[in-house]
TrEMBL record, chain A:
Subunit comment: NDH-1 is composed of 14 different subunits. Subunits NuoA, H, J, K, L, M, N constitute the membrane sector of the complex.
Native species: Alicyclobacillus ferrooxydans
Membrane listed as a keyword: yes
Protein name in UniProt: NADH-quinone oxidoreductase subunit H
GO cellular component, one term: plasma membrane
Gene: nuoH
Domain of life per record: Bacteria
UniProt KW keywords: Cell membrane, Membrane, NAD, Oxidoreductase, Quinone, Translocase, Transmembrane, Transmembrane helix, Ubiquinone
GO biological process: aerobic respiration
Matching Pfam families: NADHdh (PF00146)
This enzyme's EC code(s): 7.1.1.-
Transmembrane segments: 12-37, 84-104, 116-137, 158-178, 190-207, 247-266, 272-290, 302-324
UniProtKB/TrEMBL annotation, chain B:
This enzyme's EC code(s): 7.1.1.-
Organism per entry: Alicyclobacillus ferrooxydans
Family to which the UniProt record says this protein belongs: Belongs to the complex I subunit 6 family.
Protein name: NADH-quinone oxidoreductase subunit J
Catalytic reactions on record: a quinone + NADH + 5 H(+)(in) = a quinol + NAD(+) + 4 H(+)(out)
Superkingdom: Bacteria
């Protein structure tokens, strides 16, 4: 594994770090572009439509065209906003989402994976920083819908982070480590943790949907009541950054789910990165499937659901796991 | 003092500079929301230093609790309460002068204490500190073997504080 701290200080090793970052960023952008394409196509099929099919073969360049449109749009900053905060809010939201990818092991050879001892916790901690970007963006917009949207978003992301973390603890208990690489190694020796941790897996799936602000918990941007939530006033590439954050988190959460419950890159016959891609795609497709099937939950039912249903379930799972681990 | 450039040293100076910048900005801006944001920056800078020192768990806990929960709580308080968005400008008053002298004295005392302490150097091996365990495991072993009773006492204190906060909030509601 590449260790930055032991390399001598030279432009060459700096270039190495820079290239690594840029490669991951490009990879992430491609993944995000094609998950948006897959979302539109897949939901189209579910709703008996065709989906995007005009730009490029099978509409494959549709999202590229959309991104290009957003990038060349005029950068509008409304008059009454708090200029500095309005401009840096998308950055504060995006940077942690990209950093969170650093702990997720993409493949057998960990080229870009940080082997830190607290991988799963690191992910949770970073996603808490994104909440700042969302809150600041909504507040700086000086718009009541944006403010309500950002408040809902912050409260919801904070609340769902707790059952999410508790459902991870079950896996951590089984693997005996918070390091994501060790968790995969633990699953290679036994079965994928989705089988013994089925309750934790269900809690994780629901809580991660809430954490990602996706349907049926997409209240922060409920268009029928809040226009567009916290990014109402945003347009052009600042809006694109908020969208990018959302889909990078979708990818990161898919990676986390694959790593924690589906054995990550491990699997027979196929190479590691392909296994990882398949498992991540399963999670992403599940999210889109839910999005096409479920109506939005009522706002006053979401928080009690997180605190009074998901959290006790996760704690129950934790107790059972601990007892079984001690007995067996 | 022999000084060797290495990537961690460069990272330390960048992080320290950013953290200090956040601190100075926090003291000099007059808008409360900027203060909340920059204090978040200070917390994140501190946690980056912990990561640099190899204390992964402390760094993550710092982000989760301080940069995550506490800063967001401060922001909620700022956004949901009724108050002046900007603070009045700075004026020298006897209270401010006393506070300035006090903080300079504190800084001098801290500096003297830091300079006169013999800190463990690189010759102290890592395994002597964590017994060859990973970072969270080492902390868990120490916490539940060596310091189990203080740890439980602290958790009782936290629960009492939580219950106290609930009671205080409830009483105010009944008054209205």
């Amino acid at each position: 594994m590449w260790n930055w701290a032991t390399h001598p200080v030279s432009w060459l090793s700096f270039l190495g770090m820079l290239i690594g970052t840029v490669v991951i960023l490009l990879l992430t952008l491609v993944v995000v572009m094609y998950s948006i394409y897959w979302q539109r196509k897949f939901i189209g099929w579910i709703q008996l439509r065709i989906g995007p099919n005009r730009v490029g073969p099978f509409g494959l360049l549709q999202t590229a065209a959309d991104v290009f449109k957003l990038l060349i749009k005029e950068d509008i900053i409304p008059n009454k906003v708090d200029r500095v905060l309005f401009m840096i809010a998308p950055i504060i939201a995006f940077v942690p989402s990209f950093m969170a990818l650093s702990v997720i092991p993409f493949s057998r050879t960990h080229v870009f994976t940080a082997n830190i001892a607290v991988g799963a916790l690191f992910y949770l901690a970073l996603s808490a920083i994104t909440i700042h970007g969302v809150m600041i963006g909504g507040w700086a917009s000086n718009n009541k819908y944006a403010l309500i949207g950002s408040m809902r978003s912050a409260a919801q992301m904070l609340s769902f982070e707790i059952p999410l973390g508790m459902s991870i603890v079950g896996v951590v208990l089984m693997a005996g480590s918070i390091n994501l690489n060790d968790i995969i190694a633990g699953q290679q020796h036994s079965v994928w943790y989705i089988i013994p941790q089925v309750l934790g897996c269900i809690v994780f799936l629901i809580a991660s949907t809430g954490e990602l602000n996706r349907t049926p918990f997409d209240l922060p941007e409920a268009e029928s009541e809040l226009v567009a939530g916290y990014h109402t006033e945003y347009s052009g590439f600042r809006f694109a950054f908020f969208m990018l954050t959302e889909y990078v988190y979708l990818f990161a959460m898919a990676g986390l789910f694959a790593t924690l419950f589906l054995g990550g890159w491990s699997g027979p016959w196929l190479p590691g990165w392909l296994w990882f891609a398949i498992k991540a795609l399963i999670y992403i497709t599940f999210q889109f499937w839910v999005q096409a099937t479920m109506p939005r939950m009522r706002v006053d039912k979401v928080m009690p659901f997180a605190w009074k249903v998901l959290l006790p379930l996760a704690l129950f799972n934790l107790v059972i796991t601990a007892v079984l681990k001690a007995v067996l | 003092m022999n000084f060797v450039w290495s990537w961690p040293v460069i990272a330390f100076y960048i992080i320290a500079l950013l953290t200090l910048c956040c601190g100075v900005i926090m003291l000099s801006v007059r808008k409360v929301i900027y203060m909340a944001l920059t204090i978040g920056g200070v917390f994140i800078g501190a946690s980056a230093l912990y990561f640099l020192l190899g204390a992964d768990f402390v760094g993550v806990a710092q982000i989760l609790i301080y940069a995550g929960a506490i800063t967001i709580l401060i922001m909620f308080a700022i956004m949901l309460t009724n108050h002046e968005a900007t603070e009045p400008g700075f004026k020298w008053s006897p209270k401010n002068i006393a506070a300035a002298i006090g903080s300079v004295l504190l800084a001098v005392v801290l500096l003297l204490a830091i300079r006169s302490t013999a800190w463990p150097t690189a010759t102290t091996s890592q395994t002597a500190l964590d017994g060859g365990n990973s970072n969270p495991m080492a902390i868990g072993l120490v916490m539940f073997k060596g310091y189990a009773i203080p740890f439980e006492l602290v958790s009782i204190l936290l629960i009492v504080a939580l219950v106290g906060a609930v009671i205080l909030a409830k009483e105010r509601k009944e008054d209205e």
